[in-house]
Amino acid sequence: MAIRVCVTGAAGQIGYALLYSIASGSVFGPEQTLELTLLDITPMMESLKGVVMELQDCALNLLKDVVATDKPEEAFKDIDVAILVGSMPRREGMERSDLLKANAKIFETQGKALDQFAKKTVKVLVVGNPANTNCLLAIKSASSLPKENFSCLTRLDQNRAQAQIAAKVGVSNDAVRNVIIWGNHSSTQYPDVAHANVQTASGSIGAYEAVKDDSWIKGDFIKTVQQRGAAVIKARKLSSAMSAAKAICDHMSDWWFGTKEGEWTSMGVWSDGTHYGIPEGIVYSVPVRINPDRSWQVVDGLSVSDFAREKMDISAKELVEERDTATQFLSA
Ligand SMILES: NC(=O)C1=CN([C@@H]2O[C@H](COP(=O)(O)OP(=O)(O)OC[C@H]3O[C@@H](n4cnc5c(N)ncnc54)[C@H](O)[C@@H]3O)[C@@H](O)[C@H]2O)C=CC1
Ligand SMILES: O=C([O-])CC(=O)C(=O)O
């Protein structure tokens, strides 16, 4: 049976880079038929029409239907998956609180619409920035949906970190496993390789041992990953889209099929206050193991150094502040 997958902000850059991968089977598998619902705002409907024409022109076998709409109730009707990319971008002169305010409205409205119209099993991935706090607002606005059905994207950060380590050691990207992104999808995130391993000719070894440069790991590596989004914007004059789309596919495919034996992945999830001293009631990126039934657990029991603790707390503090600012803008 076909699954229904909604992508919001579908007329934007990430949408354009993402839709082919979803529709051609790279996320939900080569056998899974699907119906796409594409949501964007009214002024983008003409442009979105062009995207729909292109999807048709791809002549894909798995794609059974495409609906393009500016109405959340239509886009979210009976969906199995929601990928919430659409959001208000930061404009010149805007303060962070202006951005939080504009997006609070969007994610409150969409959370309520998901609550009302989506399947109760819907899996919701929030990409639009500020991703963690937007995800939190969607969770708060969708009270009939389990909090575990929501996550936000930090896989791009994980992929960036993995690629940096692979390049430094001189191995292929898939030789680097179990990198962790802690915290916010922002420059306070903490990319952590203390528990990562690298497959080398002489077997699997810890990332610190493979890199042999602790000061790089604790300095330039962390800074490069934290600042990578800004570096791409500086170079391209546009934010990351190809790599963001790839990360969305990686995240969603792991959520759909489960993580591999012995591996975990990072995603921003609701914190219930019982893991790693992370405050309750924020959406914080942690390592998770995902089961074949699409449930997941936080990977507990990893040692946390003083160095890591300090960095994890900085990001938590930022998220608590974002939450406290953004929740003031909720209507109820
Ligand atoms: N979490 C992550 O790792 C990453 C997040 N992002 C974020 O993803 C978002 C999208 O990025 P791009 O595609 O490059 O932006 P874009 O500006 O090219 O596209 C955004 C689209 O969202 C639409 N939109 C705005 N408000 C909407 C609403 N209420 N409902 C539905 N659609 C709406 C816009 O009309 C536009 O078509 C941005 O917030 C960006 O900062 C980008 C890269 C990585
Ligand atoms: O930095 C931005 O605005 C876009 C983004 O989230 C990223 O590239 O990680």
UniProtKB/TrEMBL annotation:
**Gene Ontology MF terms:** L-malate dehydrogenase (NAD+) activity
The Lactate/malate dehydrogenase N-terminal domain covers: 4-150
Which reaction equation describes what this protein catalyses?
Answer: (S)-malate + NAD(+) = oxaloacetate + NADH + H(+)
User: Can you tell which superkingdom this protein's organism belongs to?
Assistant: Eukaryota
- Positions bound to NAD(+): G9, A10, A11, G12, Q13, I14, G15, D40, N103, V127, G128, N129
Class of this enzyme: oxidoreductase
Active site (catalytic residues):
H185
**GO terms for biological process, alphabetical:** malate metabolic process; tricarboxylic acid cycle
The family database entries (CDD domains) matched by this protein are listed as: MDH_cytoplasmic_cytosolic (cd01336)
Q: Which residues bind substrate?
A: R90, R96, N129, R160
Q: Domain Lactate/malate dehydrogenase C-terminal spans what residues? A: 154-329
- Entry keywords, A to Z: NAD, Oxidoreductase, Tricarboxylic acid cycle
Q: Tell me its family.
A: Belongs to the LDH/MDH superfamily. MDH type 2 family.
Protein name stated in the entry: Malate dehydrogenase
Q: Give the organism, scientific name.
A: Amphimedon queenslandica (Sponge)
Lineage, highest ranks first:
Eukaryota, Metazoa, Porifera, Demospongiae, Heteroscleromorpha
